[in-house]
Task: inverse folding
């Protein structure tokens, strides 16, 4: 049992006969250490029971009797998450708080003894010293003595921080802002629920590099939901590894990092020594918006009040509807840009309904009209029929000639004007 009665020598309670005894103290929570954790029903200490998933085997540091060894723990030393819907499963060696409520043993933790997000040492640890151990690897022997997992990767990920932002934090005091609610994983992933001034945001980050303390465009994946502020105001510039760099991010020198000053659409981003793409998405966006500066349209959104936006950023994004439709709807424009190909595959019809259709660069001075196939067919048939009316003089003598009348010619000329589309155009 983790919850115990204990006494303290420096605290006395008077008895009815004028004496004194040590004051009894009931400790609901006691510090302990995780000796093993159950993350799946296949693990040995789960005993094949799904009800044991996310439980731990733990050793209380404050206890009655002799301390148990990690190798001798049983189901009686099992503790379950204290909260129903929220669990942060400890790993071997994690410090925890243990308690017993209603005959059920619970844990709370891991504890933040060193303010490290990856792993915190148990400062009450009593190493299991095995003098008979034949382990030759000093590091492995040390890890086993501390009761830690050989499979757990320890790293120096920085704690998430929140730097004062003069453009978004409208505080009266310099370099002062309020904190955010954050969920931090052990290896560079996090959920931040916070705000700048009174404007809320939610950031979901995965694959953040160890040396970075805040979310940014260099994260492996990033979802940002903002109420005010442009993307560059929230995240600023970032460092990007060069394509030919083989070093891990935390070991890359300045020569291996390319500094990107702000957010740039991938279709428009031009890396060093790269030829500019023939067609830029920003150029077309500017064109359909009356030649408005594309930088203002794309990158400065959010600078005004109540300009909400969502950013999805990753190396690859997959959207898949299993049984019904996908709807993409916009009150204004939908822009799609790619450096390579845009492919559309359909097992049935490909339908585009629009007032006008342009294939190619609409910024060019002239775009050619598309031809209507059926109209062209009718005109060509008309021309053929006219020629069928013409007869020529042969050796057999003169043949009857049906003269081509002026109305026939004018009709053909009029029909020729109908073979081109006034709605759909193509680049020469």
Result:
């Amino acid at each position: 049992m983790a919850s115990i009665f204990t006494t303290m020598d420096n605290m006395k309670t008077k008895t009815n006969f004028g004496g004194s005894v040590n004051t009894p103290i009931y400790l609901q929570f006691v510090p302990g250490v995780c000796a093993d954790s159950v993350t799946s029903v296949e693990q040995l200490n789960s005993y094949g029971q799904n009800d044991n998933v996310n439980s731990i085997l733990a050793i209380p540091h404050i206890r009655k009797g002799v301390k148990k060894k990690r190798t001798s723990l049983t189901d009686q030393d099992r503790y379950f998450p204290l909260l129903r819907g929220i669990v942060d499963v400890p790993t071997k060696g994690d410090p925890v708080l243990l308690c017993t409520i209603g005959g059920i043993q619970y844990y709370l933790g891991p504890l933040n003894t060193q303010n490290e997000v990856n792993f915190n040492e148990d400062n009450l640890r009593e190493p299991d010293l095995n003098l008979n151990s034949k382990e030759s690897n000093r590091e492995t022997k040390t890890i086993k003595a501390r009761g830690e997992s050989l499979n757990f990767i320890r790293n120096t990920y920085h704690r998430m921080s929140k730097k004062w932002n003069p453009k978004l934090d409208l505080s009266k005091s310099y370099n002062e802002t309020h904190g955010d609610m954050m969920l931090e994983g052990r290896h560079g992933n996090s959920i931040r629920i916070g705000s700048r001034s009174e404007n809320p945001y939610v950031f979901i980050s995965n694959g953040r590099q160890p040396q970075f303390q805040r979310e940014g465009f260099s994260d492996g994946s990033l979802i940002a939901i903002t109420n005010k502020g442009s993307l560059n105001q929230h995240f600023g510039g970032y460092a990007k590894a060069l394509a030919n760099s083989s070093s891990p991010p935390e070991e890359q020198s300045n020569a291996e990092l390319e500094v990107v000053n702000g957010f740039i659409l991938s279709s428009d981003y031009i890396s060093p020594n790269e030829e500019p793409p023939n067609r830029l998405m920003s150029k077309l966006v500017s064109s359909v918006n009356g030649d408005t500066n594309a930088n203002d349209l794309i990158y400065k959104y959010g600078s005004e009040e109540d300009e909400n936006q969502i950013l999805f950023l990753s190396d690859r994004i997959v959207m898949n509807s299993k049984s019904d439709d996908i709807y993409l709807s916009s009150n204004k424009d939908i822009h799609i840009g790619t450096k390579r190909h845009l492919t559309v595959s359909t097992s049935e019809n490909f339908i585009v309904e629009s007032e006008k259709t342009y294939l190619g660069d609409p910024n060019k001075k002239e775009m050619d009209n598309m031809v209507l196939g059926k109209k062209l067919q009718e005109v060509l048939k008309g021309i053929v029929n006219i020629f069928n009316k013409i007869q020529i003089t042969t050796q057999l003598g003169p043949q009857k000639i049906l003269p081509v009348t002026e109305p026939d010619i004018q009709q053909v000329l009029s029909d020729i004007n109908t073979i081109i589309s006034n709605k759909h155009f193509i680049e020469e």
User: Anything to note?
Assistant: The radius of gyration is 37 Å. The CA atoms of residues 369 and 425 lie 4 Å apart.
